[in-house]
């Protein structure tokens, strides 16, 4: 049942319950999409959206913290760097295996620490007298037992509050164990307005302390890294399968199914692909400045998007053999996709979706819904920045506020030995003619139609209003939203963890996704669900006093 409300009216409904001051801020974060002009890349320009800004206290946000972005997101999927969480046990325990990153050690003897939950388990005593001694002990114990090549330390909120110097401990321990690369992240949960700050902190340290240390890269004619793919539900496995079939050497993925050796040799490749722009664009930029490795944005979510990304790789290398092989792979894989689309598209066509996910999937997954003939009528990120919404061309216009200044911007210059220029300005212009914008990201809003509602940092209240007013056929979000939305009679697809399913990336993933979405949007039970508060809107209780 599509909404009868015009987008502006729907925006009014979302803001209605707020006090004036809250409404004034949210108004800038809820935007009716418009195409206002044309950007240099030929795509439309759109209105400005307020994003990467603090959540108003009291509002139930979907966001996570900087520690989640640093440890959970960027470093978490790497299997042989030993991650020690310095903090109370909960920070490590509740982040233990919850993000569904998968990994495949090559042999049974290959180290894999991902299934472990390492913590210094700080107690009150450590908060009062300091926790550095305990951290030193933890590092020594971990090295004695596991003998890792690399070990990193993550600080949690209390560590920053009491001032433990985790970097001093890391330096001291590295001096004692010179064979182990030991480094630390000041990624206290409160460091930024969301997990986005943690991504940046992670990128910086991996760049300064890991990249560039190795001299034994993988061999092959077409070597590249895939940045910003974290192997949720096996997505990276599917992309690896496709690359292998195309004859492309994947030096390293940052960081799905990755190893330390892949990272330290990553600077030898000729191309960086950026999948999740939000979490890793810093790394792409820094590697280009230091080593001269060009990058462009790809998307392996959606069969057409996958084919397009592969064709862009072929165009970049400009090699007939590779181009032919990629075309053969696309033709072969697309046969199964067409079959799946013929089966599921008629059953899903014309239905609506709303997507509220992290910092890139609310954009990427629109591709898959489009392939099913479904329309994404409202969408938003939890924590992305203006460039992810409006496109990278707005970067020079973004005002740096105190919260962003909190995170260090590294000064990066060309390496006197390792820098190698791969592309001239003319090469870049020629690629642009073929539709490949180097260092570009088109953003979510230019690709969405006019009149669509874009909502940054959607909260619980607004999600309820949205359900009531537009009743989408499916709601894409995460586990925190899932059960509330489903109690309202709308199926929710978890686009973070995939509801314990997947992969959804690449060709096989797309076919998988069509099948699951069909099952959800055409399942009848949802029509029968009545939320408990619709049946009895008020809970009554009385105190029982036994005297
Ligand atoms: Fe990038 Fe991600 Fe995402 Fe993200 Fe995340 Fe994630 Fe996400 Mo959950 S790195 S921004 S911080 S694509 S964990 S794999 S699903 S919120 S949209």
Q: Which structural class fits the helix and strand makeup? A: alpha/beta
Q: From the coordinates shown, what is the CATH architecture of the domain at 66-190?
A: 3-Layer(aba) Sandwich
Q: CATH homologous superfamily name of the domain at 66-190?
A: Nitrogenase molybdenum iron protein domain
Shape: globular
Q: Helical content, roughly?
A: 40-55%
Beta fraction? 5-15%
CATH class of the domain at 66-190: Alpha Beta
Heteromolecules bound: FE-MO-S cluster
What is the radius of gyration? 24 Å
Strand order, sheet with most strands: 1-13-12-11-14-15
Give a verbal description of the structure.
The structure is a single chain. The chain has a domain at 66-190: Rossmann fold. 43% of the residues lie in helices and 12% in strands. Strand 11, helix 15 (361-371) and strand 12 form a beta-alpha-beta unit. The relative contact order is 0.14. A six-stranded mixed sheet has the order 1-13-12-11-14-15, with helices on both faces. Helix 3 crosses helix 9 (196-209), helix 10 packs antiparallel against helix 21 (506-521) and helix 13 runs antiparallel to helix 14 (320-348). The protein is built from 23 helices and 15 strands. With 547 residues, it is α/β, with parallel strands linked by helices. Bound molecules: FE-MO-S cluster. Residues 69, 73, 99, 195, 228, 230, 232, 276, 278-279, 357-361, 496 line the site of FE-MO-S cluster (CFM).
List keywords for this structure.
single chain; 547 residues; alpha/beta; Rossmann fold; six-stranded mixed beta sheet; globular; binds FE-MO-S cluster
